[in-house]
């Protein structure tokens, strides 16, 4: 025998012939579709049998079970979740129920066939209930596609998320802290000041308990509670209920703090295409046409319409004004264009939208001697046709009554105008009756051709006896109170010059009845940027009714230059302030970031004051991590030396333990990836899992889809993830759980035998360890070999397979060999009994 031709290769023609005859004999009758006889796999070894692989015998066949899938409805992803799948007609089909179809936006109430189902009943063919509906599972891409006739879908705005998908979160308690302090030495004096601000909360279901407190310590000690409240969302009314301490809405009346109850609209519950104000576009299509809407040259909306009149009323609010260019492209390729200018003042709403706020309780006075009467306040806004918004409100108390009524209108090319009137009557502590009226006008216009934005707001008080609710309650001595307002005017103008920068101007003036006192602020500024170098020049004029001195004027100049070519992450800047009276201060700074992931930030400053003829120096360092931030700084001038320090972060406690965090926002995400330590969270600066595999996403967008992804490049070799991304839709204030299934252990190639023969081909195998540790599930291949990841060092191997209609099982204790430097995959043989 030729040594280059091994002996077992001599049997190769016989194996081929035997295999061919086996395949031919296995065909008992003709088949119209692709079919693979799993018994053919048994020829790979004279000893190894095959498990029951009938699931895989047809194209696309897979094993029934529970799979995490991406759910699409009419080619749009709407959900991501685990569903149960069963075998039917040689394919996997999902087990569905009526409630789940409703969460997908399907109008199940419109189809009587669903009424015959009982609670808990499942089905796999939506086409039996909805004509022309179907569902298809793509196992390779973990994708479940529903095809549903448009008439069977609930009409919904772009970005709509059904309330059934909103996640109230898990029970949780948290504390957000911010500590600042300083130690000052100078002029034979020493002073320590420390301030701790705490914001804490507890979540249970839809209820949110919140508290805000502060503690001052150092020279003295003082604890203060700013407020405690209980909140929850009222989904049906798209609103939020607040019990306890809160603030009234400031859109119609001046806002103030109170203790009581409030029910107010929460626009966060609306899709973006229903928030705020955007114009309604109307037009006519002569065929099946494509309608495109552009603003500033960019397409912001595109849809397809049938012949006839069309209406577009779900534009996203992109700005307060601007020209919209509408293009109607007919099926024959012809195009028609028209421009729709629009503007809005801040309170305007879309047609048919209602926004409200109602509060009742006891007024909280910032003055210890002020009155704290009971009150009721309500306000409402409603969007009317023709780009009109009507609004009004009432404020009632024993000694105070006020009514308000207003209207806003988009005049297209002429801009947007809002006018309202507020009449108030108050009984002051000296039994003096005060009655007055406020007239207000707001105007906004954007000139698209010149890229100019203009805003004007004017308030006029018809008599000196007009008081807001807060002013009336805090009124004490008629001879010492602040003069009543007479007129207040605010104006702002912004002009953009493209690459040449932009200019802004603002003006504010308020005068008073029976007084020459005036509050006034004027600002002119120019801002520009060229190749990363930015500069600004500004002029300020300030005049205060509390200051009898002359107007304060100043000119400011600032320039910043990036130093990335010489100092990565570094920038230097220079600023100058001159008050036009010979007093000049100058400051030179060097600031930037350093270390991995830019966790360290620094700022060095050197300043000089020509009037005091003194210099000042400042050095500040800050560290930013996933568990919080800390900072320290030192400053020195002619009179004082000061050490500043601070720390900020959060602590979140749940059923899974305590997790440290960065400073917390209102809505949080808890990432749970057991055993996957120090894994970076994509899109979150400095956020990574702790030693247990937990992390807090400190800010999520309420009532929106938030995608939380783990960076697999930062996973340890011993950790595998079943999926690295999850989508959550939290309610306001929720702590939602993003649970990632991990397999923590080593990668292993195991050769298994059973009764002296290789374990059957196609058997399932996995290894379990202590504390619910479990490897991935592998399928036994040729020669009884199976590859598993996440295998614990000590555990029990389990295998199961189907044989002659019976489920067979075996198990064996398993201890992995030591790792070698040549392969990250550990190999061993085991006998399964």
Automatic annotation (TrEMBL):
<keyword id="KW-1134">Transmembrane beta strand</keyword>
<dbReference type="InterPro" id="IPR043142">
    <property type="entry name" value="PapC-like_C_sf"/>
</dbReference>
<comment type="similarity">
    <text>Belongs to the fimbrial export usher family.</text>
</comment>
<dbReference type="GO" id="GO:0009297">
    <property type="term" value="P:pilus assembly"/>
</dbReference>
<keyword id="KW-0998">Cell outer membrane</keyword>
<keyword id="KW-0813">Transport</keyword>
<keyword id="KW-0732">Signal</keyword>
<dbReference type="GO" id="GO:0015473">
    <property type="term" value="F:fimbrial usher porin activity"/>
</dbReference>
<feature type="domain" description="PapC N-terminal">
    <location>
        <begin position="35"/>
        <end position="180"/>
    </location>
</feature>
<dbReference type="InterPro" id="IPR025885">
    <property type="entry name" value="PapC_N"/>
</dbReference>
<dbReference type="InterPro" id="IPR018030">
    <property type="entry name" value="Fimbrial_membr_usher_CS"/>
</dbReference>
<dbReference type="InterPro" id="IPR000015">
    <property type="entry name" value="Fimb_usher"/>
</dbReference>
<keyword id="KW-0812">Transmembrane</keyword>
<feature type="domain" description="PapC-like C-terminal">
    <location>
        <begin position="749"/>
        <end position="817"/>
    </location>
</feature>
<keyword id="KW-1029">Fimbrium biogenesis</keyword>
<keyword id="KW-0472">Membrane</keyword>
<dbReference type="Pfam" id="PF13954">
    <property type="entry name" value="PapC_N"/>
</dbReference>
<dbReference type="Pfam" id="PF00577">
    <property type="entry name" value="Usher"/>
</dbReference>
<dbReference type="GO" id="GO:0009279">
    <property type="term" value="C:cell outer membrane"/>
</dbReference>
<dbReference type="Pfam" id="PF13953">
    <property type="entry name" value="PapC_C"/>
</dbReference>
<protein>
    <submittedName>
        <fullName>Fimbrial biogenesis outer membrane usher protein</fullName>
    </submittedName>
</protein>
<dbReference type="InterPro" id="IPR037224">
    <property type="entry name" value="PapC_N_sf"/>
</dbReference>
<dbReference type="InterPro" id="IPR042186">
    <property type="entry name" value="FimD_plug_dom"/>
</dbReference>
<dbReference type="InterPro" id="IPR025949">
    <property type="entry name" value="PapC-like_C"/>
</dbReference>
